[in-house]
Structures are given as C-alpha cells and as structure tokens.
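Shape matters. As here.
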Amino acid sequence: MSKLDSIKQKVLLSERLKEKEALDLFRESNLYDLGFLADAIRRRMHPDPVVTYVIDRNINYTDICISACKFCAFYKAPEDETGSILSFDELQKKIEETQALRGTQILLQGGLHPDKQLEFYEDMLRFIKTTGIHIHGFSPPEICHFASISGLPVAGVIERLIRAGLDSIPGGGAEILSDRVRQLAAPRKCSADEWIEVMRQAHLQGLKTTATMMFGHIETLEERLEHLLRVRDLQDETGGFTAFIPWPFQPDNTAYAEIPKATAHAYLKMLAWSRIILDNVPNIQASWVTQGPKIAQVSLFFGANDFGSTMIEENVVAAAGVSFRLTEKEICSLVQGAGFVPRQRTMDYSFITTD
C-alpha cells in the first residue's frame, strides 16, 4: 500500500492524521479523492439526506473601524465623514423585515469603533432583545476590543453581554489563525491566541459559537493547517463550536487586490480538507455568498451539510465586489436538485417545524 493510500485508509477508519499526513493528503490527492473522503465523513456524521439552512440577516451596526485590515473593503477610518452607525430605529426596521421573512436570528457585527463604550453595546443588545430574535453577535476581535476599552477581562465582557441579551458568537475575524499572517494583514486585530481565548470563555459560559477561515491570500498551507488544528483542539476541550465555514478571500477593492481570486477548484479542495481534519465539528457550511449557487450545490458532495444563511443583507463581501443573492425558495430548490431534503434550522442546528 502506498503512503497516500495508507493516509486515505486512516481517514476512512476515522483515525486522526498527523500533521505531515494531513499536509501530504492535501498536496498529493486530487480534488476527487479529497471529495470522496470528505463525502464519506459527511455521510457518516449525517446519515439522513438533510441539508440545513438558516434564515437571518447580517446587520453591520457600524462601518467605522480602527483595525484597517488590508483584506477589508468595507471599513471606514474614524476620520472618514462617510462612516456611520445604525440608529435603533434602523435596527428595528431591519429586524422586523427579517422576522416577516420567517427569520430566526440576526448576525450582528461591526467595525472596532474607537469611541463607543461597552454600555453602548449592552444597550443595543437590550433593545434588539425586545424583538425576541436570536442575537448571533460580536466576533472575537470585537469582544477583545470591548475588553480593551472597558478594562475588563474577556470573560467579564462576555458575561455582561450575555446578561444584556447575547445568544451566541459568530466565528468572524479568524481569517487565518497564525500570528505571522495576522501581523502582516491585520496587525491591530486580536492575535490567534486571543481569538481562541474568546471562544474558550464563550463556551465555558454556555454560549455556542461558529468558526470561520478566510483563505487564499498570504498564508501558507501549513498555516491553514495550524488554523484547523487550533479549532479542533479547542473543540476537543469545550465542544462549543456548532459549525465551521471556510471561504476564499475576495481581493477586489482591498489592499491585496493583486492577489488572484481563488478558483472553485481551490475552494472545494479546501472545503473537503476542512471536513477531513475537523472530525469533531459537527457541521460544515457551504459559502454560496462567495462561490455562487452552483458551486455551493456541488459543495454538498465535498463535505458540506449546511447551506448557511439566506443572507437577507450582506455588506462586507459585497464591498469586495461579490453580490450573490438567494431566497429561501432558491436555496431549497438547489438542495432538492442535489438530492437532499432542505430543513430550516436555528443557530444550534435544531430543526424548525412549521405547522
């Protein structure tokens, strides 16, 4: 048996790969071999032919940000007069529109505003919570920023946000969990260790979270694996991640505009590898927002079991020139066309039943 065949056999037997084996698998396998392995794992973990999705809206409460990440086309510098903060009336209108479309949650994220104190975010949560919607909000860089401006430890910030109405935390701001990459691309954003620590503290306080990866910019394959293993190690410790969402960097209108956009082949290969490595994260989400509906449909055979959100509103990826849109009906049609049964879910992957 060849070295590569031996590695594949370990995957099929549910044995964890060593780091070199994982790298060899990615480098030496073709797309179809990785897809076959990922699909086998997906079917083992999710034997029923169900693909889930969530109806939500991505609300960016401000575009004002001190981080100035080189890969972001959305942010406005604090001195930029075009920067804005949503009013509570604007928030309420967006939430009411979401609920009218049977939406169950909002994804609440924003820039790292230099002037707003922790009380501002607590007031926002309390106001939003009057609508009854699930608040999936504040990624780890935001939590670290709140800790910095308040002088509180991360655990204390999370505790206060939970009391104000926070229900779960999204995995944004992870990019690549390697400090070499983060120092080059986003030196003002939290470190890899800080990102992990936010998630650890959230899990310890009972919050479920997701994890993401934005790949295809200045990272190496070894750094992608470092990212995956950091997520896997924390999941071994806490079990708090509900899903992993890998998506390729969108270079247009960013400081890295010269970097070629990742191909569908590169995306599917990374998606499959993620499903293979993250053997303890139950759900892998397709990224139709960056890849479009057809590649997202194909991704259901490369490890993904979740179609993600209807994304009633999305601004960050759109600022980079990508603007795919799908309705709930279109998502269900794509899932059914691939031979699966679509089911609406909540953040924790409970099914929503309709009368």
